[in-house]
């Protein structure tokens, strides 16, 4: 394919429904167009199902059905008319399937039957549900210790499924809960728990309607949270300021570049005043925000001197916070040079951002993976908290902290106890209610689970959804680790590479998706999810299940639990017959869920509450905590620098418009002007030429890491792009082989997917499977 065919500028709008054309194309091409349309119209409406796409929430007052292009793709993808059935598996050996692209694999349709891998024939063959459960039980009960099993969770699992799963796993005896949030918002949880006593966003939808300024940092809502564009647009319309920090000019955000109400006092006249789009260096946000705080401090001191109104909210600081002096000392100790050098912004830009911040009485700061997938993500998020505390922007209407979650129930899964480091209070409540001893030792997160499998300390892997093999870093190593297992089990809706990276034995257990009717002994069941604003609501599937063999996630977990543990610590069949029974168990053991079954009858669901939003601080000091962290000296790995290896570029790995994590809906990324291919690397044209290449040329990307091992992906086309110098961007999961397993965030273990030091080399032999092949 030539460069010209694949790369062309996109001139259309970016919006939720504005981008209807692409949706209708994907629907009408589907066998189920009508059926899906009907199903979709119930999405996020009472009585319908919750969108299986992202975790964005809605205004509870809003009766309108809100839906977006990418939600449409998620629904349509799940409701595929194609089936991956025993006939399909008879046709292909697993080795043959492994040669197909990720796109091809998921495109084959919905998994229809439980299947067992047979190494002799290299085929998956049908197995009964009972035999599958018995096989899992035999493996689990043969382990020397329950800690030799890993229980992964992806963030689509409902509260009911997640609760049963953690109950089973803890009754079995381990806290090994690697989950997708380990790769996602872990830093947000840790950074906020330390400082404000709660690891969730303090903001509800209405706060966006009241904010004077909304900062959107390291997030691409036009693609990943399209419904968020609407409150942003409303904000700009009513004169609020939207400020973006993103090295890429993301199409969905660009519209906010020219505020309709420019600030008269933004600069001393020497700088342009009409931009609210700042383009920091990768990993440069902490420095940028530190710079904003340093300006606020300067202005505060000026105001004090001149007897003018203060810049800081002294009343809030005195009543609600601790640690201000130490923090300000750290701000004073941070040099402007360090700030400018690391942030990638000019001093004038940082000053402008600080003025926009100061001018607003109420500020919401939203962020996503651009902040959380770095080595210093926890201090970065704590710097966001510091900034907000200076002006009392936590716990008042129209202000607060908003980590925008990814998977539709990733936040709820944590609330339900999918946590490798559970709190004692939660474990005590489980022990009280179920009368068994709960394991107290911390378990494995995603990185520790891979290391354990690699070293044969873990022998069984069970995945409740997701695509562990592809979502995790260091792909060849992770695959080898999974292949060392005695048993791998995937509970899934669609075929993915994880099913082909088998242990000695392997099972595929096909489950219902959220769009499907979930019929149990006592009738059709609904499941609950928690959105990014901590709203919990119930969702009822509407479509006929794609295959009569499918079971719900709770039913599958109950089957495994019963085979492994008998009726300990509960009667699993009883629990699954009517999910309101599971919700009663949740109500008895998790704070905030009292009268759960009653509360979900309320249209739009109920809010779980957030102590920090009430200005109650569940921290050791009982106050909100300023955190004085030094800026990292430099961001590239020390050992790499010490070796004298200088990276050509720093690479971020991100999502295209046509994907949901490892699921590829298509091969276009139209807002970024890429069509029909994914093996591209975006770089600045000057950088491309400086490094001796031409736009359109194919290169290998080689990452640099302290262990000196070669990590390479081949045959990526260089795309000249408006991207700050020194940076590159490419799609995940194709680039996961470049992310070293040990390159993770301090305290978070989150792979540094947004900061990979790379070198470009002339393309070698391309032995990868091109993602475009179908
Ligand atoms: N359609 C669709 N929706 C999704 C998903 C999907 O794959 N497809 N995934 C879901 C999930 S699990 C998640 S976690 C969210 C992810 O939502 P996002 O976080 O928006 O996803 P990414 O594509 O990783 O985009 C990261 C954004 O941050 C910017 N960025 C990267 N590094 C930096 C940095 O150092 N500083 C700053 N300021 N910006 C940076 C990138 O340019 C990009 O715009 O979306 C959820 N929603
Ligand atoms: N390099 C790099 N790596 C990353 C990221 C990055 O930005 N860069 N992002 C990280 C992030 S934020 C996340 S959240 C992870 C995502 O990691 P995962 O959550 O593990 O991955 P997904 O791609 O969302 O999983 C897709 C699979 O889930 C299954 N599935 C879909 N719906 C259902 C359902 O309702 N039930 C069940 N049981 N299965 C279902 C299907 O079989 C599908 O193939 O990836 C992480 N990896
Ligand atoms: Mo995520």
From TrEMBL:
Protein name, per record: CbbBc protein
Lineage: Bacteria, Pseudomonadati, Pseudomonadota, Gammaproteobacteria, Vibrionales
Cofactor(s) needed for function: [4Fe-4S] cluster; Mo-bis(molybdopterin guanine dinucleotide)
Annotated ranges, domain Molybdopterin oxidoreductase: 110-491
Family note: Belongs to the prokaryotic molybdopterin-containing oxidoreductase family.
Example of a GO MF term: 4 iron, 4 sulfur cluster binding
Protein keywords: 4Fe-4S, Iron, Iron-sulfur, Metal-binding, Molybdenum, Oxidoreductase
SUPFAM superfamilies: ADC-like, Formate dehydrogenase/DMSO reductase, domains 1-3
Organism: Photobacterium halotolerans
A Pfam family matched in the record: Molybdopterin
Keyword flag Magnesium: no
InterPro entries in alphabetical order: Asp_de-COase-like_dom_sf, MopB_CT_YdeP, Mopterin_OxRdtase, Mopterin_OxRdtse_a_bac, Prok_molybdopt-oxidoreductase, YdeP_MopB
CC annotations in GO: membrane
């Amino acid at each position: 394919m030539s460069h010209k065919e694949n790369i062309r500028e996109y001139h259309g709008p970016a919006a939720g429904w504005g981008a209807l054309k692409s949706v209708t194309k994907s629907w009408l091409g589907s066998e189920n167009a009508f059926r899906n349309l009907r199903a979709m119209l119930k999405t996020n409406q009472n009585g319908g199902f919750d969108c299986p796409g992202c975790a964005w929430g809605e205004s509870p007052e809003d009766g309108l059905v809100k839906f977006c292009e990418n939600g449409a793709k998620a629904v349509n993808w799940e409701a595929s008319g194609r089936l991956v059935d025993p006939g399909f598996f008879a046709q292909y050996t697993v080795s043959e399937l492994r040669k197909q692209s990720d796109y091809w694999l998921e495109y084959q349709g919905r998994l229809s039957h439980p299947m067992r891998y047979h190494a002799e024939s290299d085929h998956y063959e049908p197995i009964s549900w009972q035999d599958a459960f018995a096989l899992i039980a035999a493996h689990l009960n043969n382990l020397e210790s329950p800690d030799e099993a890993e229980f992964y969770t992806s963030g689509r699992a409902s509260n009911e499924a997640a609760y049963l799963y953690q109950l089973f796993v803890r009754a079995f005896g381990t806290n090994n809960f690697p989950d997708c949030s380990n790769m996602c918002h872990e830093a947000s949880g840790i950074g906020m728990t330390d400082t404000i006593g709660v690891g969730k966003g303090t903001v509800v939808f209405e706060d966006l309607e009241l904010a004077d300024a909304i900062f959107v940092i390291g997030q691409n809502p036009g693609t990943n949270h399209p419904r968020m564009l609407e409150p942003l647009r409303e904000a700009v319309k009513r004169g609020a300021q939207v400020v973006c920090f993103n090295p890429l000019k993301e199409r969905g955000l660009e519209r906010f570049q020219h505020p309709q109400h420019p600030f008269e006092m933004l600069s001393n006249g020497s700088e342009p005043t009409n931009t609210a789009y700042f383009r920091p260096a990768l990993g440069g946000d902490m420095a940028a925000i530190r710079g904003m705080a340093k300006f606020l401090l300067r202005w505060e001191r000026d105001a004090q001197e001149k007897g003018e109104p203060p810049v800081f909210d002294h009343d809030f600081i005195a009543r609600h916070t601790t640690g201000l002096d130490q923090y300000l000392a750290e701000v004073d100790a941070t040099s402007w040079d360090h700030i400018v050098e690391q942030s990638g912004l000019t001093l004038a830009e940082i000053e402008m951002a600080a003025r926009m911040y100061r001018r607003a009485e109420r500020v919401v700061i939203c962020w996503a993976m651009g902040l959380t997938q770095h080595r210093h993500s926890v201090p970065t998020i704590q710097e966001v908290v510091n900034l907000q505390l200076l002006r009392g922007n936590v716990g008042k209407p129209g202000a607060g902290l908003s980590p925008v979650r990814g998977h539709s129930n990733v936040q709820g899964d944590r609330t339900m106890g999918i946590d490798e480091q559970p709190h004692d209070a939660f474990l005590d409540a489980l022990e009280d209610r179920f009368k068994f001893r709960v394991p107290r030792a911390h378990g494995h997160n995603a990185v520790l689970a891979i290391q354990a499998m690699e070293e044969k300390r873990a022998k069984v892997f069970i995945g409740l959804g997701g695509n562990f093999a592809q979502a995790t870093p260091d792909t060849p190593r992770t695959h080898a680790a999974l292949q060392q297992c005695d048993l791998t089990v995937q509970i899934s809706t669609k075929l993915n590479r994880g099913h082909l990276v088998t242990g000695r034995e392997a099972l595929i257990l096909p489950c219902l998706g959220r769009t499907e009717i979930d019929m149990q002994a006592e009738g059709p069941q609904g499941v609950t999810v928690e959105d990014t604003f901590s709203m919990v609501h119930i969702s009822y599937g509407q479509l006929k299940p794609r295959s009569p063999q499918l079971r719900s996630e709770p039913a599958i977990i109950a089957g495994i639990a019963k085979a492994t543990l008998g009726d300990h610590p509960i009667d699993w069949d009883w629990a699954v017959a009517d999910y309101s029974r599971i919700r009663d168990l949740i109500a008895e053991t998790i704070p905030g869920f009292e009268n759960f079954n009653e509360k979900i009858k309320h249209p739009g669901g109920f809010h779980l509450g957030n102590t920090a939003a009430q200005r109650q601080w569940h921290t050791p000091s009982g106050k909100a905590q300023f955190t004085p962290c030094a800026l990292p000296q430099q961001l590239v790995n020390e050992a790499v620098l010490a070796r004298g290896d200088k990276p050509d570029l720093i690479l971020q790995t991100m999502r295209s418009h046509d994907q949901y994590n490892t699921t590829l809906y298509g091969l276009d990324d139209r807002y970024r002007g890429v069509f029909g291919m994914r093996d591209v690397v975006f770089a600045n044209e000057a950088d491309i030429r400086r490094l001796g290449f031409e736009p359109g040329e194919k290169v290998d990307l080689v990452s640099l890491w302290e262990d000196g091992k070669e990590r390479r992906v081949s045959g990526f086309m260089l795309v000249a792009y408006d991207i700050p110098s020194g940076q590159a961007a490419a799609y995940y999961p194709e680039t996961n082989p470049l992310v070293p397993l040990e390159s993770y965030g301090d305290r978070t273990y989150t792979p540094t997917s947004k900061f990979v030091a790379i070198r470009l080399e002339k393309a070698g032999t391309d032995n990868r499977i091109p993602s475009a092949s179908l």
